[in-house]
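<goal> How does this chain fold?
<body> The protein record starts here
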Amino acid sequence: MAADPLAWAVQGGLLASSFSLLALSLHVRDLIRAIAAFAVGSAFLATAFFVLAAPFAAALELTVGAGLVAVLFLVAITLTGARDEPEVPT
């Protein structure tokens, strides 16, 4: 059986965008933007799992990776006040 080139392109594009967003979340200095990049990257990864016919892995990644972890990070930042700029000693 020959592989469908369009399916390969869609899968490759989803995985490339997912990994690039997840890598971007490591390099962004603003914590809220890093969490947003992480959540969107996890959503792209869940979509790639759906395309690859792994619906249980996709549902788990979407609920835990993109949903629960992002919300927990936001709550932790809110509770600790980590978004405030640190004082620079003079």
